[in-house]
Amino acid sequence: MNSPSSLASARSILFILLACVAAVVAFPSRAAFPDKPLKIVVPFSPGGGTDLIARTMGIAMGQELGQTVIIDNKPGAGTIIGTDAVAKSAPDGYTMVMATVAHVVNPSIQSKLPYSYEKGFAPVMLVGVSPNVLVVRAESPLKSVKDFIAAAKANPGKLTFASQGSGTSAHLAGELFKNLSKTDITHIPYRGAGPAITDLLGGQVDVMFATASAVGPFVESGKLRALAVTTATRSPSPALAKVPTVAESGVPGYAADSWYGLYVPAGTPAPVIARLNAAAKKAVQTEAFRKRVEGEGLVINGGSPAELDKYAKGEEERWRKVVKDNHITNE
Predict the structure, then answer these.
(1) pTM for the whole structure
(2) Which of 115, 136, 175, 275 is geometrically suited to a Cys-Cys bond with 87, CB 3.0 to 4.6 A?
(3) pLDDT, tens digit, for every residue of 132-157?
(4) 220 and 163, same structural domain?
(5) Orientation angle between helical segments 49-65 and 270-284, nearest 10 degrees
(6) How many whole angstroms separate alpha carbon 264 and alpha carbon 88?
(7) How many other C-beta atoms can be found within 10 angstroms of the C-beta atom of residue 64?
């Protein structure tokens, strides 16, 4: 017959075993992630630079992670719709957002956001930084930045510039240009670079400060003409090396970069973020990715989550001042 002490000991062992099983169920091992398809939300329409970069990365990340990476385009409201969808997703690493400068600018130009910019997301990796390119259609009479400025001053408010949405790098690049060149040009926001470029090619808008990745193929094919790059120095890309900067073309002090960063919802476990970061790093170093983006001016970063966090905070501070000083508002 079992003694009371033996029964108590057996119960203790059983309790410990059950607790261990519960812990394994509640906290799956790192090897279990991912065990289903993942998703990168692109807060723009298909066809733009962010979309192309996300799709190219997604293929390589999927190969590294052993799961399909789906690209989910959720355009609208200056990237807020897609970004909000990610902020409200489960913090399990299966939903990411490919963010751009709009991610850090929206808090400055929007009176209220449906999510917390500071507390709603966790950084995964800064993909890279590239110039915007001031482009016109091939048939445009504008041959240079000086031509553009002269035409804008001769016709205040009549020339238009397209962007992939309010608060995006293209929008800010145009607003900064307006203020530093002392011109009056009208902003026309779209739900992504694809529709904006379509209207630019069709003559519905006059110019666009587009991302290099979005307009690179059109510049190479001769359908669009590059007037200038928006970075402080000329692009290292062979395709853009001969294109002057806006600053050297008559607008001293002008500089406006474009960048791409991968985020997940806040609260995503650190080991999951580390797994995604490792996969993203390998993805941007693949030959397919490098071939796709480096010819269009993207300087690949591929660093740690902390690097993206530091970079984004610096960008938020810089653009907050520009927005305030130049009275840039959401249109």
Answers:
(1) 0.78
(2) 115
(3) 999 999 999 999 999 999 999 999 99
(4) yes
(5) 110
(6) 10
(7) 17
